[in-house]
């Protein structure tokens, strides 16, 4: 009999890679999606006929419990969240409700409806914020710097609490930034690769096409999303639930990202990139670099795609996609 998995956030970057990964492993894959006036499930369009989608929302406790009752999954991956850091300053309450309390709602639904299901929580390196130790490990204390980071810290600890209080198999993956051609356009990697591709193809107006960015000195530990979803699955195959840092152990500045992306299309980034104060954050996370030793040792996990290869993959995919689009939509 096929194993059943439920993914919240299946329409997002990670949800789409995880769904592909689980299908390849022979799972019956179920996804929770929000109702919208226009269905935009682009990231999962290619697997739409192989997965089952159910309407539900992190805010609606009953929809979660009813999904669990209908599906009776062995594994639940909670990837749904308000995931964009700048939005969390504009909508701090909503971010708290989705990204923090939403986790408790899923855990409560599991506890009452499917207590045997294994649970994965999508925690984040944003919890380290103004880092208290470098590189960051599972033991590094948190100092979140945004309402998003604060909400994720709540989600992380409530996951541990339900494991310790009720014996649920609940694991938390502290994932550092991971990217792909499916990354949302507002995140810096995709903004840069998409921007460089548009400029290269002459799609930006003006005598010299510009791309406005914020802090070029921020450093991130960037990996490939396709590699990171394997780590999520591995966490739920262990004998005991636990928490793991998933990272590459390399850090790069936003400027390095820009240099590599523009060089890929044969352009000098200095002629195109401007600093736009609108993208400077009220409080910045200056440096992230994770130590994934525990995941390597216990899960046998390691990243496969390096930083330069990742940026090239994203630029190439954006060039291809833009070339294929009808002129009216450019
Ligand atoms: P993403 O592309 O922004 O996807 C977020 C998903 O959550 C979307 O499917 C979205 O649905 C869904 N969602 C948002 N609010 C919801 C609600 N109230 N009810 C139901 N679904 C809701 O994010 P991602 O990059 O794939 O990240 C996946 C998870 O990992 C998130 O929890 C994120 O915070 C966390 N994380 C990401 C990274 C990273 O670098 N990517 C690192 C650490 C942790 P719609 O399509 O309807 O908007
Ligand atoms: O790409 P970003 O928006 O990602 P951020 O804030 O690190 O958050 C992402 O990774 C987290 C894991 O650490 C996830 F939990 C979270 O859900 C999300 O996926 O920004 C990266 C860096 C920041 O330091 C930002 O200040 O890039 C800097 N940056 C500079 N110019 C910019 C820009 N970021 C964005 N989004 N847009 C800019 O124009």
Keywords:
GDP-mannose 4,6-dehydratase, single chain, binds NADP nicotinamide-adenine-dinucleotide phosphate, UDP-galactose 4-epimerase, domain 1, 7-stranded parallel beta sheet, Rossmann fold, lyase, 15% strand, 13 strands, binds ligand G4F, alpha/beta, NAD(P)-bd_dom_sf, 330 residues, EC 4.2.1.47, 40% helix, NADP, two-stranded parallel sheet, 2 domains
What characteristic shape results from the CA principal axes? globular
Q: Can you tell me the residue ranges where pLDDT is under 50 for at least 5 consecutive residues?
A: none
User: Helical percent range?
Assistant: 25-40%
Q: What can be said about the biggest beta sheet?
A: 7 strands, parallel
**Spatial strand sequence of the major β-sheet:** 3-2-1-4-5-6-11
Q: CATH class of the largest domain, please?
A: Alpha Beta
Q: How many strand segments?
A: 13
Q: CATH homologous superfamily name of the largest domain?
A: NAD(P)-binding Rossmann-like Domain
**Contiguous helical run count:** 10
Helices and strands, in order, run as EHEEHEHHEHEEHEEEHEEHEHH
Helix/strand/pairing class, anyone?
Answer: alpha/beta
Stated plainly, the CATH topology of the largest domain is called Rossmann fold
CATH architecture of the largest domain: 3-Layer(aba) Sandwich
Distance between the termini: 46 Å
Radius of gyration, rounded? 20 Å
Nearest-integer average pLDDT: 97
Bound molecules: NADP nicotinamide-adenine-dinucleotide phosphate, ligand G4F
Domain NAD(P)-binding: 6-314
Keywords: Lyase, NADP
Family: Belongs to the NAD(P)-dependent epimerase/dehydratase family. GDP-mannose 4,6-dehydratase subfamily.
Cofactor: NADP(+)
């Amino acid at each position: 009999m096929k194993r059943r998995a439920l993914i919240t956030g299946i329409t997002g970057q990670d949800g789409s890679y995880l769904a592909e990964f689980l299908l390849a492993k022979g799972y019956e894959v179920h996804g929770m999606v929000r109702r919208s006036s226009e269905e935009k499930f682009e990231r999962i369009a290619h697997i739409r006929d192989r997965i089952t989608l159910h309407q539900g929302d992190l805010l609606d406790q009953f929809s979660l419990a009813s999904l669990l009752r209908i599906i009776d999954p062995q594994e639940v991956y909670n990837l749904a969240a308000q995931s964009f850091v700048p939005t969390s300053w504009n909508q701090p309450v909503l971010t708290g409700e989705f990204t923090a309390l939403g986790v408790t709602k899923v855990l409560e639904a599991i506890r009452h409806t499917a207590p045997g299901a294994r649970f994965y929580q999508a925690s984040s390196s944003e919890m380290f914020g103004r880092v208290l130790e470098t590189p960051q490990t599972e033991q590094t204390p948190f100092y979140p710097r945004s309402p998003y980071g604060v909400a994720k810290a709540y989600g992380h600890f409530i996951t541990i609490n339900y494991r310790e209080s009720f014996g649920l198999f609940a694991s938390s993956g502290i994932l550092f930034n991971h990217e792909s051609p499916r990354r949302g356009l507002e995140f810096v990697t995709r903004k840069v690769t998409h921007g460089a591709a548009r400029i290269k193809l002459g799609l930006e107006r003006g005598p010299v096409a510009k791309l406005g960015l914020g802090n070029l000195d921020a450093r991130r530990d960037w990996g490939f999303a396709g590699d990171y979803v394997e780590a999520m699955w591995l966490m739920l195959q262990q004998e005991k639930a636990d928490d793991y840092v998933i990272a590459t152990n390399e850090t790069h500045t936003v400027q390095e990202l820009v240099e590599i992306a523009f060089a890929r299309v044969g352009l000098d980034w200095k002629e195109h990139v401007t600093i736009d104060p609108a993208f400077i954050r009220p409080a910045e996370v200056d440096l992230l670099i994770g130590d994934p030793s525990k995941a390597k040792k216990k899960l046998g996990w390691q990243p496969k795609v390096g930083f330069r290869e990742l940026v090239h993959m994203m630029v190439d995919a954006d060039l291809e996609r833009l070339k294929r689009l009808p002129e009216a939509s450019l």
